[in-house]
Amino acid sequence: MTFVKIAGLLVVALGLISLEPVIPSFGLLSVLGMTLGAAAVYTAFSLDSAAGWATLAAGVAGMPLAYYLGFRLMRRSPLVHRDRMGTGAPARLPQPPPPVPGTRGTARTRLRPMGMAQFADRTIEVAAQAGVIEPGTPVEVVEVQRRRVLVRPARDEEG
Asked: Are 123 and 105 a contacting pair, CB within 8 Å?
C-alpha cells in the first residue's frame, strides 16, 4: 500500500509541475510539485534503497515530460489565449497615395501651419507653406515630401 502512496505522490507532483505553464502561479505549483516529489523520494528511500532510486529516476525522467505536457496544454489554455488577445500591434491599413502637386481642395481647419484639408472625398493632414490659412479657404498642393503635403491658398485661374 505504501508503494501506491509513493506513486500517487509522484504523479501528483508531476501533475502540478505540468500545470505550471498553464496556470499563472509564479512558481508556486512547481515548488509544491518539487516538494511532493521530494516527499515521494524520501518515503521510498525510507522503505528500501532500490525503491528510492527507482522513484528518484522516475521523478527525474518524468519532470521534463511533465513540463513538455504543460507547454502542450498551454497552447489550448483559455488563460493564455485571453492574455495574448490585444497584445499585438494594431493592423495598419494601406493608405491611399497623397494628392499630387496642383491638386485643389479646401481647408477644413485652420492651418497654422498644420491642419486638415479636403481633397475630393478625402480629408488629410496638410501643412501651410507659409502663414496661417483659415478654414474654408481654397488650397492648392504645392509639394509632397514623403507623406507630408504642403499647400498654399489657391490662386484664381483668371489672373
From this structure: no
> What confidence score (pLDDT) does residue 80 get?
61
Nine cell digits for residue 143: 509639394
**Amino acid in the structure at residue 45:** F
Going from the N-terminus, what domains does the chain have, and what CATH number goes with each?
2-82 (no CATH), 104-153 (2.40.50.140)
Give burial (CB, 10 Å; 0-12/13-18/19+) of 138.
middle
- Alpha helices of 20-107 — where are they, by DSSP H? 28-47, 49-74, 78-84
Q: Are 107 and 117 in contact (CB under 8 A)?
A: yes
Per-residue pLDDT of the chain (159 residues), as tens digits, is 587 888 888 888 888 888 887 777 888 888 898 898 889 889 898 888 898 898 889 888 888 888 788 777 777 766 665 545 455 556 677 777 888 899 999 999 999 989 999 998 889 999 998 889 999 999 999 999 877 899 999 987 654
81 alpha carbon, distance to own chain's centre: 11
Supply the angle between the helices 28-47 and 49-74 in degrees, to the nearest 10.
160
SS3 6: helix
Check: CB of residue 40 under 8 Å from CB of residue 89.
no
